[in-house]
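cron nightly-structures :: item 1 of 1
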Amino acid sequence: MKIEDFQPGNYKPQFQYRSFDPIPVNRPWTWDSPEIHQLLAEASRHVGELNGLSLIVPDVDRFIQMHVVKEAQTSSRIEGTQTEMDEAMEDDPAEISPEKRDDWKEVRNYVQAMNQSIERLHTLPLSNRLLCEAHAILMQGVRGEGKTPGEFRRSQNWIGGATLADAVFIPPHHEDLPALMTDLEAFWHDETIFVPELIRIAISHYQFETIHPFLDGNGRIGRLLITLYLVSKGLLRLPCLYVSAHLEQHRAAYYDALTAVRTRGDLAHWIRFFLVAINETAKKGVQTFQAIHRLRQTAMTQVQSLGKRAANAQRVLDLLYAKPATTAGALANRLGISQPTADRTLAELRKLGIVHELTGRRRNRVFYFKDYYQLFLS
């Protein structure tokens, strides 16, 4: 099918409403647009560069958790959560104000769903089963936990409005879900058709969001699908592309581009938007890895000036790359050192300008690796 001639589907009469019936996507796709060709080439190049850096950066796994937290925080913000990055990094709910714990839990669930799904890809191919497993984790103990977590819906849902009568968009009827999701899964793995991977996941994300197979959490699982697809196909070795940051920044355009496909068949516009998002995010990821490498070299040189105390300081830094905010007590527990040693090491890192104190308190002070943390704020 030619992308420029795309016909998205039809509305299907149901009882007192019409649901949207999208066409299957597991088919060859072609296009004439020179702009799509150019955007695809640029996005592919920068994703390849990002993946290459993830292969050569020493101890890269120490830095990936911040990428995962960033993706979780921004993907959840698109759905209206108000969790900030410093809160998203926190493991202990007692450290989160009561009115924000629900939002915090949703973000932490996303982090867990991402980490577990990436691990599962070693033994389970990208599949509807994998997405259902991720959905079950995402919905644990949060709003929506009563909406059949881990299972495709068995009733009609809708987007916008209070009821079906005033809905902005009504996805396919639940009886049509099995065939549509089977077709989508086949599209991910069909080697008999030539469709570049970035075009394939662009179409897949649109189709998933249009099918809306779960009663809740579709947006987050649909964005998680992007990362899982890129990792499963070998375009990325690690989940180091946090595309949700771009989508959150351009939220209105993101939703408008998806809607334009359903209402006008403008798949080309959506693919252009998606490729720009991937390209810009990959370039940002490359810059972040390069900045991490420079920062790491600088910090290592500074720490070496501590002489025999450098070993403990380096161990503290290694922990801060995964979670750039901590307390002396947490460091003492995780490193198996005494509280005075942890206090002294943090004081030395403060003198070097590597860590900063956040609270201004005399007890239970929180220290953070400011320059590193700020790499993930923009």
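cron nightly-structures :: done
The chain has 15 helices and five strands.
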